[in-house]
Amino acid sequence: MRKLVLGAMCWSLWMNALAQAYKGPIIDMHIHAYNQEAGASMFGIDYRNPLTDDEFKGVRGPEQQKKETLKILEQNNVVKAMISDGKLWRTEDPNRVIISGRNVSADSLRKRHQQGKLDAIGEIVSFYGGMTADDPLLAPYFDLAEELNIPIGYHMLPGGPPGGIYYMGLKDVRVANANPLQIEEVLIRHPQMKIYLAHGGWPYLEDMKALMYAHPHLYVELGAISWILPRAEFHNYLKGLTDAGFGKRIMFGTDQMVWPSTIEKAIEGVNRAEFLTMEQKEDIFYNNAANFLGLNEEEITKHKNSYKH
């Protein structure tokens, strides 16, 4: 009898979790597109996360990455995706792909924007080269983003997978360069800039609260922390930001690279956050990014009517 009662309780909890899952449109603010040159070192890698023991099967090449990622986005109601080097996928899915450009000069990005081949800048990954956001070499990118009124994403921690310094050749990554307070002078110089920090600024919760309090134009996207961290740690960080009143500036993101199943893992991570109301989930999954990106009312209405939760 006791087993039956426990079984019924577990079933009830599971069904309640399903009932609370957000099923509306989603915007993913952090995905990567690779070609054979850019992604050669990652293709074919199956990854076991040492923090959670989760295993993710890697795609074998750029065509498989594109095909499987776009398929999972469609299956999970992801209507827009901010994709670094998204020009590689724009032809196949023009309505979904937001092109974010990086790894070239600011002048080259300007030309791409003039040609209609650039929607955003980023993510800026100078962290991997040992640079911080206040380095003068990065100033032209922040200047350009504010001038063109396009989003710019900036990366700090996580710097690759756990321990990536030692086995992925990330020799210039330093935790000492990861504190989000480094972005403050950039924010002050560019009060109209549409900027977001990747991975939520983790693990610097208190500093992120202070930054978001002082600078209302700063947003965050959740990125890899939504699937690479133990669920309790991710939820603790997300709850800290939402409890502090910043739920309207948190955007969903996955940092999907060569493991497409991380997208569904990340969606589940937000949906399983019992401390979030359905309205807060809708904000994180869609509304906040729609506002940040400046989507028009017609497009928003179309998205919401197509995927009612």
Predict the CATH topology: TIM Barrel
Q: Largest beta sheet: what is the strand line-up?
A: 1-4-5-6-7-8-9-10
Structural category is alpha/beta
Question: How many separate domains make up the residues?
Answer: 1
In what range is the share of β-strand residues? 5-15%
- The CATH architecture: Alpha-Beta Barrel
CATH classification, class level:
Alpha Beta
What is the overall pLDDT average? 92
Q: How many strand units?
A: 10
The helix count comes to 13
Sheet having the most strands: 8 strands, parallel
Gyration radius (Cα, Å) is 19 Å
Could you explain how this protein is built, in words?
The protein has 309 residues and is of the alpha/beta class. The protein has one domain (26-306): Alpha-Beta Barrel (TIM Barrel). It contains 13 helices and ten strands. It has helices spanning 2-19, 36-39, 62-75, 106-114, 139-148, 164-167, 184-189, 205-214, 225-228, 231-243, 262-271, 278-293, 297-306; strands at residues 26-32, 47-48, 55-56, 78-84, 97-101, 120-124, 152-154, 195-197, 218-221, 250-251. The strands form two sheets. Strands 1-4-5-6-7-8-9-10 form an eight-stranded parallel sheet. Strand 6, helix 5 and strand 7 form a beta-alpha-beta unit. The model has no long low-confidence stretch (mean pLDDT 92). Keywords: Lyase, Signal. InterPro entries: ACMSD (IPR032465), Amidohydro-rel (IPR006680), Metal_Hydrolase (IPR032466). Residues 89-295 form the Amidohydrolase-related domain. Residues 1-19 form the signal peptide. GO terms for molecular function: carboxy-lyase activity; hydrolase activity.
